[in-house]
User: Fold this.
Amino acid sequence: MSRTERGTRSATIDELAAMAAVVGLDLVVRLYPGPDPVRDHAHVRLLARLQAELPGLKWLTEVPLPVPGDQRAIDAVVHLGSRRVGFELETRLVDAQSLVRRLMLKQRDAGIARMIVVLADTRANRAALAAGGETLRPAFPLARHQVIASLRAGRVPDANGIVLV
Assistant:
């Protein structure tokens, strides 16, 4: 059991169930469909739509955070002078609180001046924004037109924002 906990040995489902039973737990396993061959094809299309609205900007994608051993990355980054604007692409907004926590930590750890949430413009995302707006607005106060206008003018937006594309 200790080797399995340390990750030096794999365990079968039966072994995991037995280990869980010893400490009074039930093992619950879920199955999910595997990823598409091109895992991020929806993100790629979303970024392409945003880039089409902001021609002339130089985009870096999948920018790793400068923390040794940290596997996180920012989906896209644009340099405007000496400051950087990060873009996180979300095809479906499901948990506003989790999104705010995750992106605020990425912004802090990457030293990004501004973070822009880019959401697919779908009915589900518009409904999620309407329902979770009070959770998102304090961290991402700028609306789409303010963010786009700043970036088209070559300026860093005045605050973080949300853009539906």
